[in-house]
Amino acid sequence: MILPDYVKKVIAALTEQGHEAYTAGGCVRDALLGLTPHDYDVTTSATPDEMRLAFADFSVHDTGLKHGTLTIVVDNVPVEVTTYRIDGVYSDNRRPDCVTFTRNLYEDLCRRDFTINAMAYNDDSGVTDLLKGREDLANNLIRAVGDPRERFREDGLRILRALRFAATYGLTIEPDTATAARELRALLQGISKERIIQEFNKLILGDVFYVFTEYNDVLSMFLPEVDFAAVAPEVNALPADRIARLAALFKPQDSETARKALKRLKYDRFTLKETCFAVTYRGLSITPRELAVTGGELYESGLRGSAISDTLAQLFQAVIDGKCSNDKRVLLDLCKEFGFAEPAQGKES
Question: Which of 4, 62, 180, 234 is 20 to 30 A (C-alpha) from 52?
Answer without folding.
Answer: 4
